[in-house]
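Training component of the fellowship. As part of building independent skills, the fellow (R.M.) carried out the full modelling exercise for a liganded target. The chosen ligand was NAP. The inputs are recorded below so that the supervisory panel can assess the work.
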Amino acid sequence: MRYRRLGRTNLEVSEISFGAARGNTDNPQQAIETMHAALAAGINFFDTATGYDNGDSERVLGEALRGHPEALVETKYCPYDSYLPGAEYIGTPQALIASAEESLRRLGRDRIDVFLGHGIRSLATLERFLNDGCYEAMLKLREQGKVRFIGISELSEGDGTHQVLQRAVPTGAFDVVMLTVNILLQTAAETVLPLCQQHDVGTVVMMPLNQASKQSGLVSAEAALECVRRHIAVGNLPAEAPYMEETLFDFLQPYSIPEAGLRYVLAQTVDTCCVGMRTPARIASNLRAIDPPYLDAERLARIRALFGRIEVQVR
Ligand SMILES: NC(=O)c1ccc[n+]([C@@H]2O[C@H](COP(=O)([O-])OP(=O)(O)OC[C@H]3O[C@@H](n4cnc5c(N)ncnc54)[C@H](OP(=O)(O)O)[C@@H]3O)[C@@H](O)[C@H]2O)c1
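Fellow's submitted model of the complex:
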C-alpha cells in the first residue's frame, strides 16, 4: 500500500480508502470481514456518515475498527432534509454538535479524525453553513478535541463543475474536501484540484467508479457503455461514433474498466481514492490497481479527449 499526505492535516492516508456508504446493514458480518480485509491490506482511511443506513454504517464500522485506534475515520453531518439536489437546508449548530456526539457514540471512538458538512450543494447554502453558527460549531468541536480536522463534501449530481468547492477552498476554512473525480466527470482536474494544492487542502475522492450499479457505471464494459448512452440521451455526449460503438472502451485494455477507473483517479493530484467495496475479494482485486504511474499519457489523453467535455454527473 502506498500512502499520501492528506493536505494540511499531515495525516498519511492510504491511496485507496474505504467507502462505507452501502451494504453494512444487508450483511453486517460480511461488512466487518471486508473492513478487516481492508485493514489487513493497509487501508487506513474509512469514510462514513450519520445518514448512511440510518447510522448503521457508523455502528458497523465502529465495531470493525474496535482495537484499531490507528485507523482514521471520516464522518459527516448533513445540513439538509434529504440527499436530493433540491433538498431544503435545515442546518443548525445544535444539530451539528448533536450529530457529531451521536457519531462518536455509534463509532465507539473518542474523536472523529475528519468531520465534514455533507453534500453542500449550492453557493447560497455554503454561505449559510459558514455564517449561521454551523461552521463555528465545527471549530468548537475541533477545539474540544472531539474532531481533529474539518471539511465539506459536495453534491456532484447538482454541481458537476465544483462551484461550491471552488468558493470554499480559497477561504481557508477547511482542512479537507470530498469530491467526485472519475473518467466520466473530470472537471475537478482543472478547477478545484489546483486550488486544493495551492491551499494545501486534503482531497478525498468519492464515487471513483461513478457510484456504479451493475447496470450503469465504471464496473464493466456493458455498464460503462450504458452510462455513455445515458449521457448521450441528455445531450452531454454526441450520438455519433465513437460513442455509439461497442469498442469505445477497448483502448483501456489490458486493464478492466474498474481497474482503469481507479488508475485514472490515482493519476490525478488527489490524496485518497475512496471506493465502495462490499467483499474482501473486491478489496483484493482493487488493490491490484495501485502501481504507479497508474495510467500512461496516451490513455490519459484519450480519456480526456473522449469524456473531458462532461460537466454533470449521470449515473
Ligand atoms: N456527498 C458525499 O459525501 C458522498 C457521496 C457519495 C459517496 N460518498 C463516499 O464515497 C464512497 C465511494 O462512492 P460510492 O460507493 O458511492 O461509489 P463507487 O465507489 O464509485 O462505486 C461503488 C460500487 O462499485 C462497485 N465496485 C467496486 N470495485 C469494483 C470492481 N473492482 N469491480 C466491479 N465493481 C466494483 C461496488 O460493488 P460492491 O458493492 O458489490 O463491492 C459498488 O457497487 C462511498 O462509499 C461514500 O463513503 C460520499
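The panel noted the following from the submitted structure. Strands lie at 3-5, 12-14, 16-19, 45-47, 72-77, 112-120, 147-154, 176-180, 202-206, 272-276. Residues 13-306 form a domain with the TIM Barrel fold (CATH 3.20.20.100).
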